[in-house]
TrEMBL record:
Top EC class of this enzyme: oxidoreductase
Annotated protein name in UniProt: NADP-dependent oxidoreductase
SMART domains: PKS_ER
An MF annotation (GO) of this entry: oxidoreductase activity
Transmembrane segments: none
Amino acid sequence: MARAIVYTEFGSPAVLHEIEIPDPVAARGEVVVRIEAAGVNPIDAKLRSRKRPSPDITEPRPVGFDGAGVVDVLGEGVEDFAVGDRVAIRDALGTYASALAITTEKLVALPDAVTAAEGAAIGIPAGTAYQALRSLGVTDGDVLLVHAGSGSVGQFAVQFAVAWGATVIATASPSRHELLRELGAIPISYDAGLLERVRDVAPAPVTVVLDCAGTDEAIETSLALVADRDRIATIVRGPDAASFGIRAFSGGSPVPLTEEELAWRAEALPKTVELLASGDFTIELGPELPLAEAAQAHELMESGAAPGKIILVP
């Protein structure tokens, strides 16, 4: 039997519990992956608590979308992977588990230079950052402002933008400024007087903004700095982004991503794995907890008490 974290009602982290499930079976085009690490993401908690719209629960609902592990079983027709291959997983519901059957398009080979925890930390945050910056057209010569630059999405956004030749200014608490400097950003605090501080440190006018904070001051500062509303986006204020005339990616946005944007999200995983393997990217990992402590992992994430990506280990 395999093990999985599920919930049968919406609510606090306490609704998460571990159960035994039948060993997964690989259908045609699928493999069974023995999960070694699962990434804990805010969307997991939003779905669990129903802060993000979700259908009624009629059977135990699995949790998690990102992970990494080893291929254990090949389904019929699978030729790109072999038993024993290390893989990273994206957008596969149910990664809070000891094993999972997954279609191969959601897998990327994981080189030895990238740990399972790192592989499990990539999918959603790197995909969100990469797609958002591609949608905003960030390129060489841009001055990008990232609100909440020291979070998981923010750190990926900083590193992608710097790699593409942009100058990056990123907000964070002072204790996180050295981290942002190491990633190549100009760090500033996000408290009162944000607009003036951005203007003081910017070597040229800000041309594009990615909001990962969602505060009113972040939105107001962005609008004051950038006249072209198509070059301001939020991943947090989805429901009311249109009222500001800005773009929203995730965060409950009523406007779905285009096919091209969805392709960019998928493209981020192999690109990030390659950058990690070459030493050109870094991932800040947080606590590793046993799979059975998924509720504690959600409590940590929602409290903000643990910087870095929280990982569950079966």
